[in-house]
Here is the input.
Amino acid sequence: MQIRPYELDSLTFAWCHRVYCRWRTHRRRRHARLAELDHEVLAPLLRPYSIHLLDVAADQIDVRALVSLQPTEAVSSAVSKMKGRISKWLREQDQVARPERSLGRGYFAATTGQSTSAAVEDYLQQQAEHHGYAGRARSPVFVQKFERTDQSRRILETDHAVTALRYHVVLATWFRRGVFGPTAAEAVCGCWRAVQADRRMVIDKVSFLPDHVHVALALHPGRSPAEIVTAMMNAAQEKMWDEFADSVVRAGVERLWQTSAYIGSFGNLSSNAISAYLERWERVAE
Here is the structure.
């Protein structure tokens, strides 16, 4: 049976992709102009890159920013754009054509959102009860949590950054038809985990229901969430058609998924908590 693969540019996303970033000057050298970097200065510098600045605080050594990114943007590319634009601004302020490196190579980045890690994990765990399947003798829900290992941590590591980038992904089947049972769900989850190293992602938890799937995962900063979700959609579709064709035929679906998905960033602190932290840090730095 011929099935059409999913292409990134043909998908639509509902998303929240918020990232808290921090970096310092090269060798922690003080740069007086850097302390002048505020929201009024930085926001228009980032606008051409579709990077929406939510909050920023800076002194002569540190820059800390909370930004909203497109789902197709990898965190490493966004940080590179921000650091490059700030470096150019500093050169313009100093009127120096070829200065020494102004910003350090490394950075810290962590996703955040309206929900914390604990809230997302609890939400995925409660899907059977939420959708009325908890009382069934044979529940069609498949929920699995995976502990981090040394191998999975290495997948997410990068030489010049420390990151904690986590996302809640929701995929719905074609016209919300009931496709998944526990056996098929476990097989799809297995195929996703088999390509974690190649895709630079780590699956933390899955919650499959017959007509939609919730996934909590972590990404390497060089991968965009939309890119990874597209790959997951295609891998799952191939697995279902190869090993569970009877299930998809009975469900009457032309393709496995709807051409849309939800991607929501989350972390250990909410966006509001990080904004408050930035405000406090800025007052102390003054």
